[in-house]
């Protein structure tokens, strides 16, 4: 039924998936052109003009930023304790849009909290990606407390004995909604990389941000449209949701914050970050679980060739086991061309970057799925205090915690084949 009641959006997504795949496959200059030249010394140039950069972003995206305030919640202890308090304090509504809502012990604990609030009169709506949650069930958590009996369906568990309303997003052509956003009382939002599962609470290195201010209204409107589109009327409901008046924006003070998307018709996250790499004059700090987009690798090497201090953090482990072969090839290519590569000692699911004082972070990996296929949401800002906090609390901490590459990883004969297929399969 997903393709039937969402025929238009399904067709659009398929059309753009195919066109992007063809374009990205044949629109690349090889890294081999740099192999004979050693990387130059780092430059002492000034960083890019951020006012000019923000003006160009407004022109590129066709909209101005919203205002708001960002607070970083790094790792599960920080985020989920804050999320639990927000659930308990909610008075009007809790709207959750997530790729995975697992059925492990921690996910059912959160589900119980949500059911309690729903039964206390709070409107609780949960939007779950069908493919993401199905994948999670196929990969059970590494540790579960003795006696935990997971429900067969978290969808049914959430709704059973409560007024929680759950919608599962169908996945035509294996496309997904990879956004993770939570809006409380239309005045507080969380966005980032964390799904609702025990590994995000206890095991993985990851980050969400807490947002207040007018930017929350945009995220609420995004949820409303996605919620309508996941209902029985599909594209018809989505169309009318776009016509509805927007959520009233909070009048709280703040600084400019942009919301960026991966949509079928616009890869804003990809476009903006590639433009930032090309403009950067002094430094690029980047951390991502899946750094496999060939154009990003090429532009990072080109930036290093301009004398930019390019540093990348990738995880030693992934949700598919040890360091993936795609990431090994990416790490080797960057290392060989002078980029400083740090291997985080464990699983890091963080997706964040700073380009000369412009920060961009959220749900999007730097692979074809996140940049071309799935629905994604990032936020970005040039506010100096917010960017400096991210630099110190995340990047400096992880540079110190992660061994820096000193030699290339061994490669296998079939790595290149898997690399070509992997961007679209994993």
Question: How is this structure best described in words?
Answer:
- This protein is an alpha+beta fold and 426 residues long.
- The protein has 16 helices and 16 strands.
- The chain has helices at residues 2-5, 7-26, 50-61, 76-89, 105-119, 130-138, 154-159, 198-203, 215-229, 235-243, 268-279, 294-305, 325-336, 368-373, 384-401, 415-425, and strands at 66-74, 93-98, 123-129, 165-169, 181-184, 188-192, 207-212, 255-263, 266-267, 283-288, 309-318, 321-322, 340-347, 351-355, 358-362, 376-381.
- It has a 16-stranded mixed sheet that branches.
- The longest helix is centred in the N-terminal third of the chain and has 20 residues, at 7-26.
- The chain is globular.
- The chain starts with a helix and ends with a helix.
- The mean pLDDT is 88.
